């Protein structure tokens, strides 16, 4: 898994609160209604690992029991496939699922402009109000088209036992300390950091973090609102990433490693003690837990935010983050909004929190968080000066894809820091 003034930078107030071979059989485009008045809702989400698939299955069953005549066909897909292939193709073909995962920013705006999404303000206003300002990135010109069910920030998920073995007694608070810790882990014979660069976006997030901590908040906002990438900090971010790659922080073969699928993924390497840490979003505890032999979040797991860069213009307490939300297709039956309302109810949000799948957006449900690491993330969220949405999401598909391509090239040794910015500027010029 974001724009226009209030939706461009998510403030602390906002924070609190496969390619599948075929799309046939995806009953979309307004649900299925038989002659007897029964309704079938199709629901696509990214719950494929950890506790989330079971949570969504229970939600579908409970909704059906409370709504006789309604059948919910929920299906989980890998996040990248869902976001980049399945949903765009289904929307373009005029056969979308009724309820589906929707990301804020450029993608949401494009979907709204094409008339793909149902306006929600007059349908479930109380549900929208329940999540407060976190809904802002899912709004376009003040109208709400999606509702986030989880929101959090990115940080390092790390193995406290391996840190102890390497003689590291506390997480790093500066980039220099992180570099020292990478060296200490290498000296102890431990792979310091796992990254799923095979999926591209986890590699891109490293550059995002260097940009976040090198550019001032004002520069970040100007980039979102005006696509102004003229500040030197954008090139500096690439230079810092280049220097970091030079200390050999990642596992062997990281360019081909997936992020969240299987024991050999970056999350799997952390889950099974083969790497000390991974930079990843707030959902990662559940993913890591789903990749351990006993399917449980390991006791050794800890979390800390990306450290600040001393002397840089960026705010050291800024965080990079975002969330996942759901929207109804424009032609979905009324029952779709009712299902979304049910998903966002306090009881379901509490179930979601207690499962360890993520941080809920309904404030009253945060007390149900049981995973101490998610509590740490929630505390980190509250301590952040502001939360910048994922940069590819913030800049939209055209600029975001060009930016990610440039970063991946740098990761692979075939690109330069300047070329990342040039790709972004050239892409922005086409808008």
TrEMBL record:
Key words, A-Z: Signal
Superkingdom as given in the UniProt entry: Bacteria
Keyword check for Nucleus: no
Keyword Nucleus: no
Pfam families per the UniProt record, alphabetical: SBP_bac_1 (PF01547)
InterPro entries the record matches: Bact_solute-bd_prot1, SBP
UniProt cross-references to Gene3D superfamilies, sorted A to Z: Periplasmic binding protein-like II
Signal peptide: 1-27
PANTHER family: ARABINOSE-BINDING PROTEIN-RELATED, BLR3389 PROTEIN
Name of the protein described by the UniProt record: Extracellular solute-binding protein
